[in-house]
Amino acid sequence: MGLALLAWGAASAAPEKPVRVGLVLSVGGLGDKSFNDGAYEGLKRATRELDILPYDGEPTMVAEDDRYFRRYAVEGFDLVIGVGFLMQSSLEAVAKEFPRIHFAIVDAFVDLPNVASLLFKEHEGSFLVGAAAAMATKTNVIGFVGGMEIPLIHKFRVGYGEGARYLNPRIEVLEKFAGSGPEAFSDPFKGKQLTETMIAQKADVIFHASGSTGNGVIEACKQHGVLAIGVDANQDYMAKGYVLTSMVKRVDVAIFELVKEVKAGRFRAGPHVLGLAENGVCTTDFAYTKQKMPAGFEAKLEAIRQKIIRGEILVTDYTARPAAAK
Fold it and tell me: How many domains, the chain?
């Protein structure tokens, strides 16, 4: 409770201390038109609507994450947020050292009483765009380009394939990953290369889950006259008419809501999981591509969405599968 509330009747009451929030972005930083930009939008919204003091850090390599977390913790910030699973070990270590500081991490789970884990049901949103790809394809071949080959990105891959096969069991789904290290999320040249390989194999709709590597995926699709599917943020504008839709992950909403809780003194540690039912994942509105979809596609996608929410369609969560099955 702020001092102004404790001494509301005193003429010399001090103003309530502003909430300070530190956001540590993933490697690649601002301008990725995807994951980091979405997180930053959440911080900007909190700044406008909740009157907080925002700070953002852009590490150039994973090894720098610890320095940002520690600096914000030492300064006594009200909330310190790490964007991305690559920060899990460094955030956990610093959070243990500063148990009175509230921390949060996106796309990873840290089991500490002062850490909120912001998680998403990416497989549900990916199922929807997979179904959309199955309706849009002319060749019966579609593709998926992942960034770093890790369980999180496999959630996108598996959901996408299941959604496509739900409508067309005979569809072919080509799959490629950009690499095994963090750089796989920031290599547009590799993204373009992988996409052109798939296009040569007749893929005409290609979904990416690869950070700024996906910029190359979208560029290749536009150059070759096929359709891309964006990820994390609304990427439809990046190549109007060539990005069928985007599987939006509402990192901005998750961050805004958490900051709102902290400001109200209601920080909740543990998992905060957002799926279709919570509007944590969704497709964009096909603003530039409706004419490339069959009649009635929107109603069909909405019916699928409702079936997933009701549990009538069970989408595989790759990260929940037994280790032996991975």
Answer: 2
User: 202 in helix, strand or coil?
Assistant: coil
Tokens encoding 37: 């930009």
Together in a domain, 45 and 194: no
| 44/41 Cα distance (integer angstroms) | 5
- Residue 50: which CATH number? 3.40.50.2300
**Residue ranges of the chain with per-residue pLDDT less than 50:** 1-14, 322-326
| Residue 280 within a domain | no
pLDDT at 292: 96
pLDDT at 112: 98
Q: What whole-number distance in Å separates Cα of residue 221 and Cα of residue 212?
A: 15
Q: Which residues are registered as beta bridge partners of 144?
A: 175, 207
> What is the secondary structure of 119-153 as a DSSP string?
EE-HHHHHHHHHHHHHHH-SSSEEEEEEEE-SHHH
Residue 282 domain-assigned (yes or no):
no
Same domain, yes or no: 106 and 189:
no
Q: Give yes or no: residues 162 and 73 share one domain.
A: no
Where does residue 33 fall: left (phi above 0), alpha (psi -120 to 50 degrees), or beta otherwise? left
In this prediction, residue 10 carries a pLDDT of 37
Helices (H), the chain: 3-6, 35-50, 65-74, 88-97, 122-136, 151-167, 188-200, 214-224, 251-263, 297-310
Q: Look at residues 67, 64, 69 and name the one whose alpha carbon lies nearest to residue 79.
A: 69
How far is residue 308 from each of residues 99, 141, 224, 316, measured CA to CA in Å?
38, 24, 34, 11
Q: From the CB of residue 38, how many other CB atoms can be counted at a distance below 10 Å?
A: 23
Q: At what angle do helices 122-136 and 297-310 cross, to 10 degrees?
A: 150
Distance of alpha carbon 65 from the chain centroid? 19
Which structural domain, as residue segments, surrounds residue 37? 3-120+251-274
